[in-house]
Amino acid sequence: MKEIHNEVVKQELILQSGYKERFSVDILRDTRLFEVAAGEEIVRVGQQPAWLFYLVRGRARLYATSANGRVSLIDFFTAPCFIGEIELVDADHEPRAVQAIEACWCLALPMKQYRPLLLNDATFLRHLCIALSRKNYRNIVSLTQNQSFPLINRLAAFILLTQNCDIYREKHTQAAEYMGVSYRHLLYVIAQFTQEGVLIKQKAGYIIKNKSRLLNLAREMDPENNFSELLR
Question: How many CA atoms lie within 13 A of 44 on its CB side?
Fold first, then answer.
């Protein structure tokens, strides 16, 4: 993670993301801009974040590590959204790892300095409540989709969400656990995609050769999501 000292870019991202409108207190003076490389951690497991991040570009994933060392994929973040807001509200919360799927840009406020101000900022807390309610609704929809649609549709959406530069390289065990299917069933559908020429196996993962096929399958499951951010 590196800080970007470019005031023009920072101001553009502030305007484009609606960042300033999330607060009623003056936060611009202390707002920093960070760039996070793909695969790099934004928040480290068990380590209280020093910053409240506002993801303005990119996608990230949330992991949990159990007592036996097993790592499980929990959720995904897409811009714009806060990262570290739970640790801001609950200082005793055990942080979970947040990793960039692709290059991410984050606006950031120093956590310790702004915690008292933000916890008394009605505008910020209202936006936070809305964001958390939407996240809860998204999880409910995801659970419903897991019960209602075949794996081929769900895996298509998962591949689109986790790919970077048209390369899919998620661990099969974590993907199967996240979607609630057997390892064998997951491999069967991936083999189906490779036979159709949708995916091409390589050493570092799978090259996506037919993104339109994946998009059509994903939209069958989620017609209200046009996946436009994945078409770039």
Answer: 4
Q: Give the DSSP letter string of 39-52.
A: T-EEE-TTS--SEE
18: left (phi over 0), alpha (psi -120 to 50) or beta: left
Length of the chain: 232
Q: Is 148 exposed, middle or buried (0-12, 13-18, 19+ CB in 10 A)?
A: exposed
SS3 35: strand
Q: Is the pLDDT of residue 226 over 80?
A: no
Work out the pLDDT band at 228, boundaries 50, 70, 90: low
Question: Mean pLDDT over all residues of the chain?
Answer: 91
Question: CA 154, 158, 159, 160: dihedral to nearest 10 degrees?
Answer: 100
Structure tokens at 190: 């991936």
Q: The whole model's pTM is what?
A: 0.88
| pLDDT confidence tier of residue 66, bands split at 50, 70 and 90 | confident
